[in-house]
Amino acid sequence: MWYEILYRVLSIINYVVLIVIAIPVLLQLFYVCASFVKKRTFPKSEKKGRIAYLIPAHNEEKVIYNTVKKVLDGQKYPRDKFDVFVVAHNCTDKTAELARKAGAVVLELDDPDPTHRMALYPLKYGIEHILALKEDPYDVVIHLDADNLINPEFSSLMNDAFQSGVDFARPYEGSINATQNFYTKACTLFYSFDSRYGSRVRERLGIAAHINGSGAMMSVRMLEKCGGYDCVSISDDAEFNFNRMLEGYKGHFVEDAVVYEDMPSSFKDTLARNKRIGSGGMKLLKTRLLKMLGKFFTTGNFSYVEMFLTYIFNFITILISVWIPLYYIYHFTFLGFAAYGGIALSFQPVSYYYHSLWNTVIIGGAIIVGLFLFFGYLQALFLVLSDYRKLGAKKRSELLSAVFLFPVFLLLYAVTLCMGAMSKPSWGKVKRN
User: Fold this and answer.
1) What CATH number does the domain containing 66 carry?
2) Domain range holding 143?
């Protein structure tokens, strides 16, 4: 019968889909299993480079003073060796005034183009200004968001990496509001996964770090060579990382340097953030990631294929959120009718479909339980037990509740990324907590 042929064809397609999904999952499994390797530290350097902290800000009067003040007053680093630059981008509030009051060098950017309402344009403007300062030049630029905090050793640790020859590096990602509610707890755990698991193992194995977002360190010598901040997409940080990798630069992970971010505290904010990430990631998949894969085949450098496998997760969320539920609704419906005599059969006896039905239930159930236990509970539990202070909590017990609900958040994350991957990129105002 035609419906038996359709079942076979769709089953073969589903096997291919499951293999595609399994490859990055197995890579993550490897990172977790290998995460007990000793972290890498860079040699302490007596030579102190000049650091420019660069903060793009649009109407951030609620947080900008505190951010600038804490960077300037809180670093265990010679005060004459670092400054904070704030680019007040189309601000209509007191962002510029408060940033100056806190001690920042303020650059005011009035850009009426509605397509430029995203962070990459003030970043580009600020980097151009810093590169033009030839009288007392800086050695590195570190990007922070308007609400970020950093640990007191941050500048020294990034300088140690720079003096060791590193041009491009990322810190550990923690949270300012880790214990606020379920969403902030779950987001904190999720965004710290790549720090504690993937980034540590990559650094030990010589694989390029994934440098995106707050706390990214960029050497001036690299920026001058590549012509500044050469990005055009809403996922500018990931795009900059890909551009440098394709030019041969290797990103590094400075694990003890911690940037504390403001995590989304509601479903609406989580959805907005993940939609932006998913949309930007899909655009990069089309324009950069395929080049990454090609670069692997021409150089043999595993960093390229590893980056490809990690970022292709944006496409995989579509398979997880759309293909998997639709296919298995069809799968169990068909097998239910076939196994219990509801339809006529031509190619296989009823017993074949009966066993197929229950094998799927047993094997699929075991896989789902295993994924929930390992990727949900065990990963999150280990992260809380080992790194709760870096995550932004004072006690382990403050984050334990998130461990039990974390598998639910992972499903939510996949669905919201899928929504972003299938929508146009947009940049909205971020709620500060």
Assistant:
1) 3.90.550.10
2) 51-184+206-265
**C-alpha 125 chain-centroid distance:** 24
Residue 226 covered by a domain? yes
Residue 98 lies inside a defined structural domain of this protein: yes
Kindly tell me the burial class for residue 298, based on how many C-beta atoms sit within 10 Å of its own C-beta (0-12, 13-18, 19 or more): exposed
Each residue's pLDDT, cut to its tens digit, for the chain (433 residues) gives 778 889 889 999 999 999 988 888 888 888 888 888 999 999 999 999 999 999 999 999 999 999 999 999 999 999 999 999 999 999 999 999 999 999 999 999 998 888 777 788 999 999 999 999 988 899 999 999 999 999 999 999 999 999 999 999 999 999 998 888 888 888 888 888 888 888 999 999 999 999 987 899 999 999 999 999 988 877 888 889 989 999 999 999 999 999 999 988 888 887 777 777 777 677 777 777 778 888 888 888 999 988 888 877 777 888 888 899 999 999 989 888 888 877 877 878 888 888 888 988 998 888 888 877 777 788 888 888 888 888 888 888 888 888 887 787 777 777 877 777 676 655 555 666 6
What pTM did the predictor assign?
Answer: 0.87
Q: Which of helix, strand or coil describes residue 332?
A: helix
Q: Whose CA is closest to 215, among 198, 232, 195?
A: 195
Please count the residues of the chain: 433
Q: How many domains does the chain have?
A: 1
